[in-house]
């Protein structure tokens, strides 16, 4: 199955997130995932999604002041209450649009200390318990340092260790193959080894984060088959910047033998 991030649709440049639901549906998608809809009420977002007649798979955690480059406070000591408030607000939006997954972003910081890791894990424990009560899934995503310098979580080993220690079915790994290639490579073995912990998958070509079929480092016909062979049968988010325009950039799906 294939989903797209509503905010990743180049045809919607300049469009609000409310308009992008309809644009994604017009392009043929059955589902979307989105960032947090800053500046729009829960009622507005719910109405736009329902009017478009499209499913929502995932929503990003409310992340703080995006104008300052903030990408979450999950790993920032002293901001635990802000994290809890952001989580609850995001849960409210997720329930409104029917999204079953929340991407819990970690944040960016200059100097990482043990206190950051302790805060991060404690907040994720809290989130897992809360999400269990509302039957939602939290996912955490290592992000490479080329794309987002100083992002806190860029280590798959540490991400999996935390997931294992917390031991909740409501906290898993968001596996973006683009980031996996940048950070680790060795995709065949890493996908197989990480799959028991994976709750969501995204794809894009490396190095320029374009469509899977543009020239690049990753053989996506093989990788998509490999994901399926290793047990992944859920939505795949198209977390890329279309080099060919959004609609023309979707032709690879049919050429690979898939459908939207």
Automatic annotation (TrEMBL):
Residues 22-255 form the Xylose isomerase-like TIM barrel domain. It comes from the Eukaryota. Pfam families: AP_endonuc_2. One of its GO terms (biological process) is glyoxylate metabolic process. Its EC number is 5.3.1.22. The active site is at 141 (proton donor/acceptor), 239 (proton donor/acceptor). Keywords: Isomerase, Pyruvate. One of its GO terms (molecular function) is hydroxypyruvate isomerase activity. It is an enzyme of class 5 (isomerase). It catalyses: 3-hydroxypyruvate = 2-hydroxy-3-oxopropanoate. Belongs to the hyi family. Catalyzes the reversible isomerization between hydroxypyruvate and 2-hydroxy-3-oxopropanoate (also termed tartronate semialdehyde). This is Putative hydroxypyruvate isomerase.
């Amino acid at each position: 199955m294939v989903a797209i991030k509503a905010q990743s649709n180049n045809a919607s440049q300049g469009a609000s997130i409310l308009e992008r639901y309809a644009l994604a549906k017009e392009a043929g998608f059955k589902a979307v995932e989105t960032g947090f809809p800053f500046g729009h009420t829960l009622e507005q977002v719910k109405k736009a999604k329902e009017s478009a007649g499209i499913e929502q798979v995932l929503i990003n955690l409310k992340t703080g002041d995006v104008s300052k480059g903030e990408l979450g406070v999950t790993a920032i000591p002293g901001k635990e209450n802000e994290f809890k408030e952001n989580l609850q607000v995001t849960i409210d939006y997720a329930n409104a649009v029917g999204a079953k997954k929340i991407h819990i972003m970690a944040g960016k910081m200059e100097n990482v200390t043990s206190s950051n890791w302790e805060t991060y894990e404690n907040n994720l424990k809290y989130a897992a318990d809360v999400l269990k009560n509302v039957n939602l899934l939290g996912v955490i995503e290592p992000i490479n340092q080329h794309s987002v310098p100083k992002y806190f979580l860029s280590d798959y080993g540490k991400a999996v260790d935390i997931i294992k220690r917390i031991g909740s079915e409501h906290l898993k790994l968001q596996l973006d193959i683009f980031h996996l290639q940048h950070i680790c490579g060795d995709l065949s073995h890493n996908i197989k080894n990480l799959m028991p912990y994976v709750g969501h998958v995204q794809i894009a070509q490396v190095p320029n984060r374009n469509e899977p079929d543009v020239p690049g480092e990753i053989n996506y016909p093989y990788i998509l088959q490999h994901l399926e062979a290793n047990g992944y049968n859920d939505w795949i988010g198209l977390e890329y910047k279309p080099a060919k325009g959004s609609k023309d950039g979707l032709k690879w799906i049919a050429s690979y033998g898939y459908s939207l």
